[in-house]
Structures are given as structure tokens and as C-alpha cells.
Design a protein that fits this description.
The complex is a heterodimer of chains A (about 325) and B (about 250). With about 325 residues, chain A is mostly helical. Chain A has 15 helices and no strands. Chain B has about 250 residues and is α/β, with parallel strands linked by helices. Chain B has two domains: about 80 residues, 3-Layer(aba) Sandwich (Rossmann fold), CATH 3.40.50; about 110 residues, 3-Layer(aba) Sandwich (Rossmann fold). Helix content of chain B is about 40%, strand content about 15%. The longest helix of chain B has 22 residues. Classes of the chains: A mainly alpha (about 325), B alpha/beta (about 250). Chains A and B meet through helix 3 of A and helix 9, helix 10 and helix 11 of B.
């Protein structure tokens, strides 16, 4: 807010407008005034049930998960100083989905409340730790992307394997959900399930700003400024694992948000990661809200996956970024 | 004789002479989806793949309309006769499917007797159900699938004395009904499917707070998939079960 009041206010207004749209758009076709009245009333009518138990958690999750992905994308890109780093593309979300699927199919998720998000967190932490170790501190594009492809492919294959081995005939059909993500039919239970770990992750990632700013001057300069790179890396891994794990556990793996949002916002905030982090959080929330409204407008009754929309926007941008990275000779 | 389709399996298990049927699909032995699971247990269980079916050297293979076209054409190229048992879309198709299986197995008389007894039972239930429109019910299958007018499920609801909410919403045949649309229709009863072991998001919808609020105690019925996954004469059991649930409902 302090650095770019205009941008932050605009983003906040956008998030609020899209949040309202998310509450007001849905297959039940409730008139806006009636919908808001039902939301505030919260009685036992069908309208109130739809607003409070179906649309509100959906909109809240879109904000929470979108902000998480935007934040994680900006933080990873800041640490690796590489605009191609994004939790979905390099397999962190996919590994979180694998953790979630294992927890669900083994019964771990049913046996204790936080089993599901914690298993997803473990998957995400494993992937992000492995990737940072492979890519090294400077995060060479080629190594990062190749390692990401390998981790994504492995996580995707293992997710498919676990779901195919499930005794539940519907599980295998849900491979698409885990790989593309969706917020259909989520409830407040899912909000409470994801929120604690996400909050921890937000705090960890938001605290990276100063360190990442220093890192733009190079590792040596950062260390002379009193930044511990080990601590920075640890906070990044833990924070990313928390937010991506918790989000993926309830909504599947949603790609490209962490790529698109920092890329669009970077020109507005200059080259300072500390300013990009909060802006990307708001931008991510706006993008996921918009995507979730779009899937409802295109196919109201069916469960079109969020990843379809985010990839349609994100994949061309990703190609453009690769093109530009190559032109710069990196 | 080998069957490679769950529905064909069950018709064949009902009609075949002892020893006539060598193999059925592995799902036919699963009581969750098959009413003939006990009868299937002694038989070889196949996974509907051409290679294993060929190895059993059957005189005839029974398939369903949804059996992989590749498998069917491959079996035919290997010189094995394949009979496709017609699909049962409504209750009125059940006798035809029975007769088709009977003809394939050379058990026409048994098939005819079973078809006649089914028709008689159906007529009895229809006569009993013909009174004032009953409670409004919605069918919720995993993944928010429902069945509207013209479907066998709709006929079963009518037989049980229920009026189908999906039909009110203009759904014909099978279709999707979003959870919030279902809540807005405010049905008196929610009829779901018995959950399978393991976990799935598709089944989780019935545990969603909004779905729970809709279907309080006595206003929810679970049907076993086995009773109506296929249009065997056992579908009438699903109707009877529902009718019982309606009578107990507050």
C-alpha cells in the first residue's frame, strides 16, 4: 500500500468487484438483490443455503488460493531471479496433488482433520526442495524447467496410478480434477481446512520482501547486507509448500496464476520484489476469481476445470516469456 | 459362452444352464454393482480384453452396446461370434433384453417366462402407484448427474410414488444438475447412491452442508447401484425399496 497506493487500491477494487460477481453468478439464477439479502439473512431458505454454503466458500477459496498462487509465484521468481518459475509449471502443485490423493485414498484424510492439507504440504515441500536444490541459487532457466518437467510428469503419473488403484470407480475420473483444479461444490469445511496452513505460508512469504530486494544485487551483496540466504531459502520452501499444499488439497492443481500475475504487475512496481509480493497476492486473487466466474458462465451446470481457463491465458504468455528469455541470451 | 459386459453378465447368469457360461467380467462378482455376484463367484472372471477371451475359446461372446468396438471387432476377426445384448433404457426394454439373451443362450422358454413375470410385476406396481402425485424427489448420482423424463430412473421414481424434480427442471434423459440448482428446487427427498469404498469428490457432494441441509433425517434414501446399474428385472426391487423409504418419511 505504501509504495504504490494507486495500483494497490485498483487491485483491491478489482478483487472486491470480482468477489461480488462470484457471489452473484451461478446456475441457480438468483436475482442480485435477493442474493445479497439472503446472504446477510442466513436463514433456512434455499437462497440463503445457496449463498452461504455454496457460493460464499467458493468465492472465499478463490481469493485465498489465488492470492497464495500469486504470492508463491512472485516469491519463487524473486528468489530464483527467473520469470519462468511458477509452482504449477514446475510440478510443485502436481506433487501437492499427489500428497492429497494419497491421503484421501489411504484414509489418512478421514482419520484426522488436517491429514489432507498436511499430506499435500509434504508433497509440495518435497518438490520445491528438490527443485531449488537442482536449479541452484541462480536458478538457470533450462535446469529449472527441465527439472520441473520431470517432477510434474512423475507426480502426474503417480497421481493417476493411485487413483486408478482406488477401489472407488469415480476416483479415476478425478485425475482431471487433481491436474486442472476446480472450486465446484466446495464448502466452508474446505475453507477452514485450508486457512490455517495458508495463513502460516502467507506470513512466511510476506516476510521475504527485504531479503529478495537485497538479492537483486547479487548473493554476495545480499549477504553483506545481513541477509542469510539459507534462511531465505528455508522460508521460501516452507512458505510455498504451505500455501500451495493447502490450496491444492482442496481445489486441485491450478497452473499459470503464479506466472501470469507477477509478469503483468512487474512493470507497475519496478524491479522490487518486496512491492511485487503484495501486488501479486491481490492480482492472483483477482485472476482466480475471474477464472472461476468464467467457468460458470461458459458451462453453468458442469464442472469445467479452472486450469483450462488459466492455461488458455497463461500458456501463450509462457511461450512469449521463453521467447524473450532466449532473445536476452539467458 | 463368455460375457464381457456387466449387464450382459447378469442377464446371462440369470438364464444360462449350469456349465454353459464359462466367464463373466470381474465386476459381475462385485456385489456393489451386480445382483448376480454370488452366482458369478465360481466362474472365471475376465477384464473384457480380446486376448484373454480368445484364450477361453468360447463359441459365443455376449457383449453390450458400450463394449469397446475394438474388442468386438478384434474378437470377430479372430473368428469368434459376438452377440450384442441391447441396451435397457426404460423399464419397457427389460423383456427384450431378456429375450435377446435367451435366444443367444438357446434358453428361449426360460427367458420368455422371466419376461412375462417381470411384465406382470411391473403392471402390479404401476397399478398400485397410480394415485395422487407423491413427494418431490431428486436423484443425485456422483458428479451431480441426475435423470429426468424418459429415463428408467424416472420411471422407477414414478413407480415408487415419487415425482421427479429433475423433470420439473426440464431435464430429459440423463443430465447435470448443479448442487445449487438442486437446493433451489427444494425437493422433499434426495435419493443418492450408496458410496463405494475409497474416496471420491463426486460422492462427497452428498456430504456437502447444503446437501445435508436439504435432506434431513428420513428425507434421504440411498440406493444400491447393483439394483439399477443394469436394467435387469431387479430394478423393480429399487422401486420397492424407494416406496418403502417414502412410506417411512415424515
Amino acid at each position: 500500500m505504501r509504495d504504490h497506493p494507486g495500483l494497490m487500491t485498483a487491485l483491491l477494487a478489482l478483487v472486491l468487484a470480482l468477489f461480488a460477481a462470484s457471489l452473484l453468478i451461478g446456475p441457480a439464477g438468483i436475482a442480485p438483490a435477493q442474493a445479497l439479502a439472503a446472504l446477510l439473512r442466513g436463514d433456512a431458505t434455499a437462497e440463503a443455503l445457496v449463498m452461504r454454503e455454496i457460493r460464499l466458500p467458493r468465492a472465499l477459496l478463490a481469493v485465498m488460493i489465488g492470492a497464495s498462487l500469486g504470492l508463491a509465484g512472485a516469491a519463487m521468481q524473486g528468489y530464483l531471479r527467473n520469470p519462468l518459475a511458477e509452482p504449477g509449471l514446475i510440478g510443485v502443485s502436481g506433487s501437492a496433488a499427489l500428497g492429497a490423493v494419497i491421503a484421501l485414498q489411504t484414509g489418512l484424510a478421514a482419520s484426522f482433520a488436517l491429514g489432507l492439507p498436511l499430506a499435500a504440504l509434504a508433497g509440495a515441500a518435497l518438490a520445491v526442495g528438490l527443485l531449488l536444490a537442482l536449479a541452484g541459487p541462480r536458478g538457470g532457466s533450462l535446469t529449472l524447467i527441465l527439472a520441473g518437467i520431470a517432477v510434474s510428469a512423475l507426480a502426474g503419473a503417480l497421481t493417476a496410478l493411485v487413483l486408478n488403484l482406488s477401489p472407488n470407480p469415480f476416483a479415476a475420473a478425478e485425475i482431471v480434477f487433481w491436474m486442472m483444479g476446480s472450486l465446484v461444490d466446495r464448502s466452508m469445511t474446505h475453507v477452514w481446512l485450508a486457512l490455517p496452513l495458508m495463513a502460516v505460508g502467507w506470513v512466511l512469504l510476506a516476510g521475504l520482501g527485504r531479503g529478495l530486494d537485497a538479492l537483486t544485487l547479487g548473493e554476495d551483496a545480499a549477504e553483506t547486507l545481513g541477509i542469510s540466504l539459507t534462511r531465505l531459502r528455508l522460508m521460501l520452501v516452507a512458505g510455498t509448500a504451505c500455501v500451495v499444499g493447502a490450496g491444492t488439497a482442496v481445489a486441485g492443481a491450478i497452473g499459470f496464476v503464479g506466472l501470469v500475475v507477477p509478469h503483468i504487475l512487474r512493470p507497475f512496481v519496478g524491479a522490487r520484489p518486496s512491492a511485487l509480493l503484495p501486488a501479486s497476492a491481490l492480482g492472483g486473487a483477482a485472476m482466480l476469481l475471474a477464472a472461476d466466474v468464467a467457468v460458470r458462465l461458459v458451462l453453468p451446470d458442469r464442472d469445467l476445470k479452472l486450469g483450462v481457463v488459466t492455461a488458455l491465458v497463461g500458456a501463450p504468455l509462457f511461450l512469449h516469456l521463453i521467447w524473450r528469455t532466449r532473445a536476452e541470451g539467458l | 459362452m463368455v460375457s464381457v459386459n456387466l449387464c450382459a453378465d447378469q442377464f446371462a447368469l440369470m438364464l444360462a444352464a449350469p456349465g454353459q457360461l464359462v466367464s463373466v467380467t470381474h465386476v459381475a462378482a462385485d456385489p456393489h454393482v451386480s445382483v448376480m455376484a454370488a452366482a458369478a463367484r465360481g466362474l472365471h472372471l475376465n477384464r473384457a480384453q480380446a486376448e484373454e477371451v480368445h484364450a477361453l475359446a468360447p463359441d459365443l461372446v455376449l457383449a453390450g452396446p458400450w463394449t469397446s468396438a475394438y474388442t468386438v471387432s478384434l474378437l470377430r476377426r479372430l473368428g469368434i461370434a459376438v452377440t450384442v445384448i441391447p441396451d435397457v433404457r426404460t423399464l419397457d426394454d427389460v423383456p427384450d433384453a431378456l429375450r435377446a439373451t435367451g435366444t443367444a443362450l438357446g434358453r428361449e422358454a426360460d427367458a420368455e417366462a422371466m419376461a412375462a413375470s417381470f411384465t406382470a410385476d411391473l403392471d402390479t406396481l404401476r397399478a398400485a402407484a397410480r394415485d395422487a402425485p407423491g413427494p418431490r424427489a431428486v436423484l443425485h448420482n456422483p458428479g451431480n448427474y441426475t435423470s429426468g423424463t424418459g429415463s428408467m430412473a424416472d420411471q422407477i421414481l414414478t413407480l415408487a410414488g415419487l415425482s421427479n424434480v429433475a423433470a420439473e427442471a426440464g431435464i430429459a434423459g440423463g443430465g447435470w444438475l448443479a448442487l445449487e440448482s438442486m437446493v433451489m428446487l427444494a425437493p422433499d427427498m434426495v435419493i443418492g447412491a450408496e458410496p463405494y469404498p475409497g474416496a471420491s469428490r463426486a460422492e462427497e457432494v452428498l456430504r456437502h452442508p447444503a446437501a445435508r441441509a436439504l435432506a434431513g433425517p428420513g428425507r434421504r434414501a440411498l440406493l444400491a447401484d447393483s439394483d439399477w446399474v443394469c436394467g435387469t428385472p431387479h430394478v423393480l426391487r429399487a422401486a420397492a425399496h424407494l416406496r418403502h423409504a417414502v412410506e417411512r418419511a415424515p
